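Sanity check record (used in CI):
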Amino acid sequence: MLHRLRELLRFYRDLSLGPLAACLADLATLADRMLANSLTCHCGQLLDKGELPPGDLGAPESLRRLLSLVREMLSCGDGRLAPLPQRQLDVPALLQQVLEPALEACQLSASRLSAADGATYLANCAQLAHSTLAPFECTEPWLERLEALAQHQLGLLSQEQQAALLSQLGLSTPVRLLGQGPLATLPGCDVLALRTAGSRLARLLEDGFPLPLGQLLASSSHRRTLRATTLAALCDVYTQLHAAVHDPANGYPDP
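Expected output for Putative golgi transport complex:
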């Protein structure tokens, strides 16, 4: 309501002259301050609860409600009342006031989770915020920021998934000891260990290369990205180990 009132006051201010224009300008300034105070209060009420991430690691209810408010306010700024130069000022200010504390609250909640769960949670929060802002103009800087946040979290999640896969396959030790002497003579790197790892890898690929840490990502695009980066990293590990096994210096008979 305050948002619509401010836009109307600005609109008629720009059409008026003399004392009426000055009066409308004062009222528009007052409405602007009241709107800012109302948003600050509303954000505080939602975010001060210290909401824990939901079990599915999706965006919390507080963020969903704030994004719904942002969507409603941006939908009102369709250009009929506020000209583009004014919207270019209003939209970033609105997003800074609402999304900045909301993302800080999400990051605080994520810090209480494991590395993989925290990355999944923040990627889901960023994805929801990005999809909410995408249809609206003057949101490009925030869209870039949210995309960067999501990609960073996907990178962290991929690292966690890679480590989990290497441990599952029994390849953590061989990868860690690469280049530290004849590999075949080092603990956990003998022929039997590598053959067992190869069999596990074959079964993993036969099962469709499941990625447990990516199951709770809300975005199918994010799941595809995680799958691609993790598979690429695993292929790189395989290439390194294949070269090491065929290097006579590592002491493997009949590679």
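Residues 47 and 105 are 7 Å apart (CA to CA). If this sentence no longer matches the regenerated tokens, the check is flagged for review.
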